[in-house]
Here is the input.
Amino acid sequence: MASLSNKIVVISGASAGVGRATAIEFARQGASVALLARGAKGLEGARAEVEAVGGKAWVRTLDVADAQQVDAAADAIEAELGPIDVWVNNAMVTVLSPVSQMSAEEYRRVTEVTYLGTVHGTCAALRHMRPRNRGAILQIGSALAYRAIPLQSAYCAAKFACRGFTDALRVELQHENSAIHLTSVHLSAFNTPQFDWARARLECEPQPLPPIFQPEVAARAIVWAAGQRRREVCVGFPAVKTIWGNKLLPAFADRLLQKRGYAGQQDDRPLVPNRPDNLFQPVDRDMSSHGRFDSEARDYSGQLWLTMHRKTLTGVIAGAVLLPLALLLLKKR
Ligand SMILES: NC(=O)c1ccc[n+]([C@@H]2O[C@H](COP(=O)([O-])OP(=O)(O)OC[C@H]3O[C@@H](n4cnc5c(N)ncnc54)[C@H](OP(=O)(O)O)[C@@H]3O)[C@@H](O)[C@H]2O)c1
Here is the structure.
């Protein structure tokens, strides 16, 4: 995608966290953004931030678990903003709890929002993109789409399912010679409100497994990925390490997580009893993009820089190797 100016971008889960930071970054680069989520206060906060950077925001409260609501939003965006160029499936919920204490309703809800929400968004986007044979769909994934961790069984399973759905659809699009671009952006750990409003059954308050990055790092990666043709993009070295480490040494990863996966997902403050959570209803507050980890979160990823400059770096390295070789051959002649 050469320029984002006048492009129409839809983002689910845009009222907070990574989705909200991504909406602001798209708007900063000239796109008009449609913001989807359940919470009206968070969406209005996001709209104000998009407009503050000079962007145009279109807002709809909906639940991504409901396919009809997602389809109706897609139709309204096409009618009111114009043809959808980019659709970002980002909305999620999780429950931090051992499997033994999870209920069937919790498993169903996490699956309906985190997995089926992605399916509904993708199908709504394709319905409009297919006749035009253009557009980009981005699935916001996680290292946990490859490596499941303790205390997040429902979320990890839903992220695995998103990857399965996306891989099947990618091949179908290739089989149709479609020009629609489908990519997954797999994140490391990010400083978002997720850890303050996710349902939790732990001793202490949940936290992302460190190191933690600021949501703007993910936002820059997602906006960049919308203009590339990459199959998958990892954001942050921990995601690369987790995915490849698990492919190579899965049993070692099991043992590591048994040791570090419990304490690593909790800070040292006792869990606030009956804290409001966002599983079935939105939390009625504007939570912004950032969570409570600003003091320790990194706003830069060297791994992401290398990913974004892969072609240039390959050229420079090839030049550095081939040029002396060519000079040597010339000298010998
Ligand atoms: N933060 C991390 O460490 C991390 C790591 C790896 C991957 N990720 C991925 O990054 C993405 C964003 O995560 P995040 O940390 O930014 O989460 P977050 O802070 O909890 O934000 C989640 C967003 O989803 C929306 N949402 C939740 N349920 C919804 C529903 N049923 N319908 C519509 N919108 C809904 C929320 O708004 P409402 O409540 O107002 O609906 C909110 O805007 C997710 O796909 C997640 O898997 C995050």
